[in-house]
Amino acid sequence: MPVRVQTEDFDVSAELAALRSGRPTVGAVACFVGTVRDVNEGTGVSTMTLEHYPGMTEKALETIVARARERWNLDDVLVVHRVGELAPLDQIVLVAVTSRHRGEAFQACEFVMDWLKTQAPFWKKERTPQGERWVDARESDDAATARWGAGATPNAGDGAR
Predict the structure, then answer these.
(1) Which is more confident, 62 or 151?
(2) Smallest Cα–Cα separation from 112: which of 34, 53, 24?
(3) What is the pLDDT of residues 89-136, one digit of tens each?
(4) Which class for 150: exposed (0-12), middle (13-18), buried (19 or more C-beta within 10 A)?
(5) What digits encode the pLDDT tens for the residues 14-39?
(6) Which of 53, 85, 139, 152 would bridge with 148, disulfide CB 3.0–4.6 Å?
(7) Dihedral of alpha carbons 48, 53, 56, 58, sign
(8) Secondary structure of 86-150 in the HEC alphabet?
């Protein structure tokens, strides 16, 4: 269950190859790569700075991954999330899931990403022509998380958001 928070970029192909290596039972790999957009809410974005709370962030991500593993029969899960200053087109996050069957891999990948967006302690600040601004949580992210049900709450009781 690899979880990494890092400033360096990642190589999706190499990460997926490592995740599958030596595992002939893997029949499916589902992944999501999030990138920095050049526009948010109708305003140009020149950079995005991501901050986190070391230790707490990794724990929250590990808890999310553990809940996905409880819910689906998975071979492995990888989460790589970048922090620091990023520019449009830069990769922010990689979530990859391996399993025997595609349905479980797709669902678990979406679950991990939905919960990561709302429960992992990351803070985003965008630089725009009008100055810097913090990015608020979106109602659509909360709605995506809510559809997994209350019993799926990864961070119940630990106070992380």
Answers:
(1) 62
(2) 34
(3) 999 999 999 999 999 999 999 999 999 998 899 999 999 999 999 987
(4) exposed
(5) 999 999 999 999 999 999 999 999 99
(6) 152
(7) positive
(8) ECCCCEEEEEEEEECCHHHHHHHHHHHHHHHHHHCCEEEEEEECCEEEECCCCHHHHHHHHCCCH
SS3 content of the chain, % helix, strand, coil (to 5): 35, 35, 35
With vertex at residue 156, the alpha carbon angle to CA 154 and CA 157, rounded to the nearest 5 degrees, is 145
Separation of alpha carbons 111 and 81, rounded Å: 16
Distance CA 43, CA 6 (A): 27
Q: Say how many residues make up the chain.
A: 161
